[in-house]
Amino acid sequence: MINIFFRFWRIGSVIIISLVILFCYKSLPESIAVGHNDQGYPINFIGKQQFFYWAAGIVFFLNFLMDLLLSQIIKVDFKKIIPQSMWANHSTALKDLLQGWFSAFLALTNTYLIFVVLGLNNINSNKNQMLDFNYNWLLILGVVILMGLLFYLPLRILFTNPPKED
């Protein structure tokens, strides 16, 4: 059930990030401020097209590469690598765990990128492009959540047993 939730969240987040990138491309100025000094004034700029291609490339290549990685990991026979592992002996439970984790990771990553792109749009929405709100808390919170999710999979495999199969 959780795998289905994260799969839908992942698909929805890909659609939403695509729409957000297109919306931001339409509404952003030709020169986008991406770096600011201590007073909040912009010091680094990129072009609007460069932003669009980088953002779209990162989102779609990240999702494509993670799908490719998942398909290769699922093909591995873990019984031959670690025969004493409980998870390796329950291949369907391991496969479900891996698919759920990859879906959750991509869903959270895409959602994080949605907020990053919307924050960049908000910074550049006024004429002087001054950073008038501190977005550091969003960046730190997103990284902490993603790091927690990165450590979840190995800790779950190391310290828990797979659920009983029906």
Explain what you see.
With 166 residues, the chain is mainly alpha-helical. It has one domain (2-159). It is 72% helix and 7% strand. It has six helices and two strands, in the order H-E-E-H-H-H-H-H. It has helices at residues 2-27, 48-75, 78-81, 86-89, 91-123, 136-159, and strands at 31-36, 42-47. A two-stranded antiparallel ribbon has the order 1-2. Strand 1 (31-36) and strand 2 form a beta hairpin.
Total domains, how many?
Answer: 1
Uncertain spans: none
Order of secondary-structure elements:
HEEHHHHH
Tell me the structural class.
mainly alpha
Give the strand order of the largest sheet, numbering strands 1, 2, ... along the chain: 1-2
Main sheet makeup: 2 strands, antiparallel
- The mean pLDDT is 87
Beta-strand content bin = 5-15%
How far is the first residue's CA from the last residue's CA? 15 Å
User: Count of helical segments?
Assistant: 6
* Fraction of residues in H or I helices: over 70%
* Secondary structure: number of strands: 2
Keywords:
mainly alpha; 72% helix; single chain; 6 helices
Quick structural overview:
By secondary structure, this protein is mainly alpha-helical.
Question: What secondary-structure arrangement, pairings included, does this model have?
Answer:
Elements: H1 2-27, E1 31-36, E2 42-47, H2 48-75, H3 78-81, H4 86-89, H5 91-123, H6 136-159
Antiparallel strand pairs: 1-2
Helix pairs in contact: 1-2, 1-5, 2-5, 5-6
